[in-house]
From TrEMBL:
<comment type="similarity">
    <text>Belongs to the short-chain dehydrogenases/reductases (SDR) family.</text>
</comment>
<protein>
    <submittedName>
        <fullName>3-hydroxybutyrate dehydrogenase</fullName>
        <ecNumber>1.1.1.30</ecNumber>
    </submittedName>
</protein>
<dbReference type="InterPro" id="IPR036291">
    <property type="entry name" value="NAD(P)-bd_dom_sf"/>
</dbReference>
<dbReference type="Pfam" id="PF13561">
    <property type="entry name" value="adh_short_C2"/>
</dbReference>
<keyword id="KW-0560">Oxidoreductase</keyword>
<dbReference type="InterPro" id="IPR011294">
    <property type="entry name" value="3-OHbutyrate_DH"/>
</dbReference>
<dbReference type="GO" id="GO:0032787">
    <property type="term" value="P:monocarboxylic acid metabolic process"/>
</dbReference>
<dbReference type="InterPro" id="IPR020904">
    <property type="entry name" value="Sc_DH/Rdtase_CS"/>
</dbReference>
<dbReference type="InterPro" id="IPR002347">
    <property type="entry name" value="SDR_fam"/>
</dbReference>
<dbReference type="GO" id="GO:0003858">
    <property type="term" value="F:3-hydroxybutyrate dehydrogenase activity"/>
</dbReference>
<dbReference type="InterPro" id="IPR050259">
    <property type="entry name" value="SDR"/>
</dbReference>
Amino acid sequence: FLKGKTAIVTGSTSGIGLAYAKALAAEGAAVMINGFGDAQAIETERANLAAISGTEARYSAADMSKPEEIAAMVHDCAESLGGPDIVISNAGIQYVSPVDEFPVEKWDAIIAINLSSTFHLMRAAIPHMKTRKWGRIISTASAHSLVASPNKSAYVAAKHGIAGLTKTVALETAPHGITVNCISPGYVWTPLVENQIPDTMRTRGLTREQVVNDVLLAAQPTKQFVQPEQVAALALFLCRDEAAQITGANLSMDGGWTAA
Ligand code: NAD
């Protein structure tokens, strides 16, 4: 149902972002992927997305901490693929430390990549959407857009910021056929999460099962990870005409975490 539409997904060389890109491509969208990683692996993914969609797929190496590179990425999409009709702001990083020891440069990087990049992306993309009177803007927020955990001051501040930015821009763009929403997953099974398990087992003297159930899924009542494909399926629904009246929403997908 997305044939003829174009989408930018930031941070889509891995994890949730890659699942969004695949889901959009499977519906026929021309996708521009973005993020860091091995050049060969990225090229393989890009070619795979082109094959899945039956149309073009491109890669942008834009650094989400650099406003001018974000604007250039949107411009490049408009020139080469058209649009963008759909933008998914997903790139994100994490750093864990008590606030009084939090490195200033880590704070600045998290605010830039996890929050300000979404502003720059919206700012550059919305004029293109207004001309076509249709647009879908989706951000990956987090359960941490609604609740806090200790030692994650920058991440929690950035994700709460995404929820506020989403509401504000939804109000501004509502007359133009553009919807703006964010999705707030709990723990999602990505390489990022999986790779933490051996370290935590070692440093805390726990079994794999204990790390998963008592540490990672401690706050998630279903005791199951969210799957990247489940997050992508919700984003896909937000792109449908049936979702035209969903705007300004922060949609939780967290196994009940924030219900507690
Ligand atoms: P991931 O590490 O697998 O993917 C992050 C992506 O962002 C990668 O493609 C990486 O290259 C890219 N990236 C990082 N810094 C960048 C920069 N400066 N410029 C451009 N790209 C950059 O992580 P993920 O788990 O898939 O996370 C994706 C999003 O989902 C993040 O915003 C994260 O906060 C959010 N999230 C993740 C979870 C989880 O449990 N995994 C839960 C809630 C929210």
